[in-house]
């Protein structure tokens, strides 16, 4: 049987990586021996290209294709092989990040960037079975990021407000896939809630 794909999404500083780290140490989750992964990927040709792009003044369309190339590589090398082995895959960011972020950055290039970017993925991506949306006000998430955020071109309140709106719209469009998490609470509380929801989902599927 094919495994299950669970993704963690949300704006910068919403606490996805913190919770992903906690889940890796959580005995109830560890029992399933999940594969933990992320986008952009780390230490790969495509992931390095993405990292360079987001640290520079790269054209937004070029950036989209780099993120998407990284997604293709991620799918081919990590996600698909693991799912085919029946594994549970937990990814810190995935395609919805492209829909939400590039859905905004590409507004200067395209009339309807959200639909366009979704269409670009349609025939070859694997849609997650379950997606947690870490929802938080950008004012709070940016403050959390402190110095780290000052270097990032994406960590700006006005921009993240629009990205958050798209994430919430995506969640409204697919309520059976998304679980919205109030990410303003403590990491311990969020870890507990996400763990419970994952266990509940796995017991049903
Ligand atoms: N629930 C939380 N409450 C307060 N601070 C948090 C919480 N979760 C994460 N942080 C802090 O906020 C910053 C961003 O968290 P991180 O997990 O890296 O977010 P993301 O992966 O979503 O960008 C880090 O400094 C982290 O220690
Ligand atoms: C995966 C992905 C990330 N991004 C953005 C989100 C982040 O601002 C940045 C790097 O992602 P990431 O390293 O996950 O940042 P963070 O830990 O702060 O959440 O790239 C996109 O714009 N499109 C994408 O498809």
From TrEMBL:
Any single GO CC term annotated in Swiss-Prot or TrEMBL for this entry: cytoplasm
Catalyses which reaction(s): dTMP + ATP = dTDP + ADP
Coiled coil spans: none
EC assignment: 2.7.4.9
Domain Thymidylate kinase-like, chain residue ranges per copy: 8-193
One Pfam assignment: Thymidylate_kin
Keyword list, A-Z: ATP-binding, Kinase, Nucleotide biosynthesis, Nucleotide-binding, Transferase
GO molecular function list: ATP binding; dTMP kinase activity
Sequence positions that bind ATP: 10-17
Enzyme class (EC, first level): transferase
InterPro entries assigned to the protein according to its UniProt record, in alphabetical order: P-loop_NTPase, Thymidylate_kin-like_dom, Thymidylate_kinase
GO biological processes: dTDP biosynthetic process; dTTP biosynthetic process; dUDP biosynthetic process
HAMAP family with a match to the protein in the record: Thymidylate_kinase
Family note: Belongs to the thymidylate kinase family.
Protein name as annotated: Probable thymidylate kinase
Native species: Methanosarcina thermophila
Gene this protein is translated from: tmk
């Amino acid at each position: 049987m094919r495994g299950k794909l669970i993704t963690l999404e949300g704006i910068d500083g919403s606490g996805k990586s913190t919770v992903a780290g906690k889940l890796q140490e959580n005995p109830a989750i560890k029992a399933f021996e999940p594969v933990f992964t992320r986008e952009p990927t780390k230490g790969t040709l495509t992931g390095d290209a993405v990292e360079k792009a987001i640290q520079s003044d790269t054209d937004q369309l070029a950036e989209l294709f780099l993120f998407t190339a990284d997604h293709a590589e991620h799918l081919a090398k990590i996600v698909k092989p693991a799912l085919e082995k029946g594994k549970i895959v937990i990814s810190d960011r995935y395609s919805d990040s492209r829909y939400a972020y590039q859905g905004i950055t590409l507004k200067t290039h395209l009339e309807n960037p959200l639909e366009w970017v979704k269409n670009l993925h349609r025939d070859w991506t694997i849609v997650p079975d379950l997606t947690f949306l870490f929802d938080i006000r950008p004012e709070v998430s940016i403050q959390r990021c402190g110095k780290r955020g000052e270097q990032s071109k994406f960590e700006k309140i006005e921009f993240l407000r629009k990205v958050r709106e798209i994430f919430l719209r995506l969640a409204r469009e697919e309520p059976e896939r998304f679980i919205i998490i109030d990410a303003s609470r403590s990491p311990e509380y969020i870890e507990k809630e996400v763990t419970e929801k994952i266990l509940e989902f796995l017991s049903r599927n």
